[in-house]
Amino acid sequence: MFKKILILAGGILSVQALAKSSNEQWVQYGVDVVTNRMESDKPIPSYVLDRAQCIASMKVVKAGFIWGGEGSTGLVSCKTENDDWSTPSFFSVNGVNFGLQIGVQWFESVLVFIAHNSSEILGHASAKIGVDLSWAAGPTGEGEGSGQLPNAHVLSYSRSRGLYFGATVEGLVLSHARGRNNEVYGERTPAEILQTSGTTAPDIVLPYVETLDQYAP
Asked: Could you tell me the pTM of the whole model?
């Protein structure tokens, strides 16, 4: 019983820590999630990244029986008209209903959006995976060329405690973090942020743009 209480308390503390993260820490989480995946033994293949219209990274913590909400961090960038990565928008995650293993307290995920209208959908205040966009677990490996892709709008790449898996992301809601976006960009809508070239990104979010440039040029 005491051990269970400690685990629960640890989850709550982790949620509080993420919720209180500075914008710099939030960006670093996003960079780390992408880097961890691409430097793993199961990277996202180049033929998938070549199709990417938007890429989101997120870290979600479990407190008790609750996933997401304030205990999550996320960043998303989309390709602009100039075929470069946009300034990233901060977002949080709600509605998480993952069939994860017992004992899992956190997971991180890279979502690769391959639908041509991904930027338009993500430009709204929120987007729901499984309703606005269909999903599938993405193929992995270092293969190049034209590998077969699942018939889905979003490909999910998830990890928890070193275990890589295709998490069930049905029902996941990505909601733009208006407060954080306003702190960095001023009064701008998510659509405006995702249509602006990352070459003009404020220094605070530039590391995320540079990470995408490195792994998904």
From this structure: 0.83
